[in-house]
Design a protein that fits this description.
alpha/beta; 266 residues; 6-stranded mixed sheet; 2-enoyl-CoA Hydratase, Chain A, domain 1; 8 strands; single chain
């Protein structure tokens, strides 16, 4: 396969059958622009068709996994229905393409993850995180519903009680806590994240491929069954992007101040 048409990523083949994908914008915590979001959604179709690849590791170059998109860009397109429709489509394709990719995907969460980065980290089949890595689903901090991947995967990973607590409060979670509540597969010392993920990928790449792919396909019916909740949550999140709370949340984030949500003052 030719992965040269993906400028937001680096591709390496560290072992037989293993593809290593790196978010490649380290100066900006591997943030994604519009093209990067679209490429992140479609790359899994390429991986699925890649006969050389039997297992995938995705990680970030530098100190971060992936910071997601730009709040500044979202604010510039605030209320733009065409743009929001494109965001919805790309977010939906990212989740479903990860689910439907036959190859096992392992996220090596080596630093902060947000937005599409957090979606990729937690939707991966196996997730390996560093002990000191901290993340949160920050939708509540900017005044929009925690739809997107949260509705489809968090309750299955860590249970409804923990999912509701962390999605409602947007409290930070470190690697140890994420492993303790089942939100990630494995927590390791910070310097061993990529190494551990590659070891797992090597084992899977050397295993019975049809059995492995059919096991992924079967287990992911749990996620397909949650599709209606995901679709509803994503649509409501996008609708929230046209609200006064969201505008205040975005502006407060950019100004580095505490938001004062209009609906909390009525």
């Amino acid at each position: 396969m030719n992965y040269s048409d993906y400028p937001a990523f680096k591709f390496e083949r560290p072992a037989d059958g293993v593809l290593l994908i790196k978010f490649n914008n380290p100066e900006k915590y591997n943030a994604l622009d519009k093209r990067g979001h679209e490429d992140l959604a479609r790359v899994w179709n390429e991986v699925d068709a890649d006969d050389e690849t039997r297992a995938v590791v995705i990680t970030g170059e530098g100190r971060a996994f992936c910071a997601g998109g730009s709040i500044q860009t979202d604010l510039e397109y605030f209320g733009d229905v065409k743009h929001l429709t494109e965001v919805l489509r790309s977010a939906r394709e990212l989740v479903y393409n990860i689910i439907n990719c036959r190859k096992p995907i392992i996220s090596a969460i080596n630093g902060p993850a947000a937005g599409a980065g957090l979606t990729t980290a937690l939707m991966s089949d196996i997730s390996v995180i560093g002990e000191s890595v901290r993340f949160t689903d920050g939708h509540m901090k900017i005044g929009v519903a925690a739809g997107d991947h949260a509705a489809i995967i968090w309750p299955l990973l860590c249970g409804m009680a923990k999912a509701k607590y962390y999605l409602y409060t947007a409290d930070m979670i470190d690697g140890r806590e994420a492993e303790r509540i089942g939100l990630v597969s494995k927590c390791v010392p910070d310097g061993e994240v990529v190494k551990s993920a590659l070891e797992i990928a090597g084992r899977l790449a050397a295993g019975p491929q049809i059995a492995l792919q059919y096991t992924k396909h079967t287990l992911n019916h749990w996620l397909r069954d949650a599709g209606p909740a995901f679709e509803a949550g994503l649509a409501l999140e996008i609708m929230n992007f046209m609200s006064e709370d969201a505008r205040e949340g975005f502006e407060a984030f950019l100004a580095k101040r505490k938001p004062e949500f209009p609906t909390a003052r009525r």
